[in-house]
Structure formats: structure tokens, C-alpha cells
Amino acid sequence: MQATMEKKSGTADILSRGGKYLTFVLCGEEYGLEILKVREIIGIMGVTPVPQTPKFIKGVINLRGKVIPVVDLRLKFGFEEVDYTKETCIIVVEVESVLTGIIVDTVSEVLDITNEELETTPNLGEDVNTDIFIGVAKIKDKVKILLDLDKILGAEEINLVESLSAIR
Questions:
Q1: Domains identified in the chain, total number
Q2: Measured between alpha carbons, how far is 21 from 147 in angstroms, rounded to an integer?
Q3: What pLDDT sits at residue 167?
Q4: For position 105, which CATH number holds?
Q5: Closest of 124, 123, 146 to residue 134, by C-alpha
Q6: How far apart, in whole angstroms, are the C-alpha atoms of residue 164 and residue 160?
Q7: What is the pLDDT of residue 127?
Q8: How far apart are CA 38 and CA 93, in angstroms?
Q9: Which phi and psi (to 5°) does residue 31 adopt?
Q10: How far is CA 108 from CA 74, 88, 117, in A?
Q11: How many CB atoms sit inside 10 A of residue 146's CB?
Q12: pLDDT of residue 156
């Protein structure tokens, strides 16, 4: 009974997460982030590597005098690393008051997704952590996976990112 209540509560929460999302492409698939977490979008630039960090943390950039850690979302998700192109960009996001850059293949558009277009994330098996997904949006016969940045950049990553931000 408790699990059923939690599941229903989670479904209600997901289905009330309609709003504006910035969509982007990774490995040919479209994903979305809540627009309120996005601070700006910049072209790919030189990233200074930082030793002894996980492979998905590409390093830091100097953005108008602020040192900002950069995470390659492809590597964070376990996808194949590819060379950056002119379409590759960095989305600067704010999670728990910490600015972080996330590298994506290309940015698509800002969509206003309604609650009716949202569905809960399907069960993808025990080995897949679906906590990082807000849900799935069905728009014009296409599926867009909506990501929960708070879960993707969890406490461990936030602590690491904060320590990298402190580099002067």
C-alpha cells in the first residue's frame, strides 16, 4: 500500500511538471532541461583539464571571471566520446546555487510542454537508474526525455563541482 501511494504521488508530481524546457541532442536523441535551471548557452571553448577528476568532468572554463566546471553529458551517461563540432555547445546551468557547464551535441529549441504531453518514465529494467528522468514528453510523434539536473548532478558531483569552482 505504501509503495502504491508513493508511486501515485510520484506520477502526480511528474504530470504537474509541464512548462518550458530547453531541448538538446545527445547521440541523435532529444533531451530536455527545465528552462529555469539554464543560465546561458555558449559555444564550445577551451576547457582546462583538472587532474584526478572523473572522466566525465572535462575541466573548468573561465566565464567572465568565474571559474565554472564543465561536465560532458555524453560521458556522464556512458555514451561514446566524440570530437566536438561547431554545433557542440555548453549549457551553463545552476543546480543548488552552483553554476556548471554541460556539454551537449547541439541545442534544439525551447518548448512549452503541457502536462498532457508528459508521461512517467517507462520501466527500463533494474539496471537503469530512472531517477534522473522527470518523465517523457510526446510532441508531434516524437519522444523527448526530460532530465532532472538535481539528480544527474547529485550531491557527490555538486561537492566536486563546488571544489572545482573554488579554483582561482
A1: 1
A2: 10
A3: 56
A4: 2.40.50.180
A5: 146
A6: 6
A7: 62
A8: 4
A9: -125, 165
A10: 16, 11, 18
A11: 22
A12: 62
Strands 133-139 and 38-43: unpaired
| Domain span including residue 63 | 2-165
pLDDT (0 to 100) of residue 58? 93
Q: Which three cell numbers stand for residue 12?
A: 502526480
Per the CB < 8 A criterion, the answer to whether 146 and 134 are in contact is yes
Mean pLDDT by 10 residues, the chain (168 residues): 39 64 95 95 94 90 92 93 95 90 96 87 62 85 90 69 58
The reported pLDDT for the residue numbered 124 is: 59
Predicted local distance difference test score (pLDDT) of residue 7 = 39
Kindly tell me the sign of the dihedral angle through the C-alpha atoms of 20, 25, 30, 33: negative
Q: What is the DSSP letter of 100?
A: E
**CA 114 – CA 86 distance, rounded (Å):** 32
Amino acid of residue 89: C
Q: In this structure, what C-alpha cell is assigned to residue 5?
A: 501511494
Give me the DSSP letters along 9-32. HHHHHHHT--EEEEEEEETTEEEE
As a whole number of angstroms, the distance between CA 125 and CA 127 comes to 6
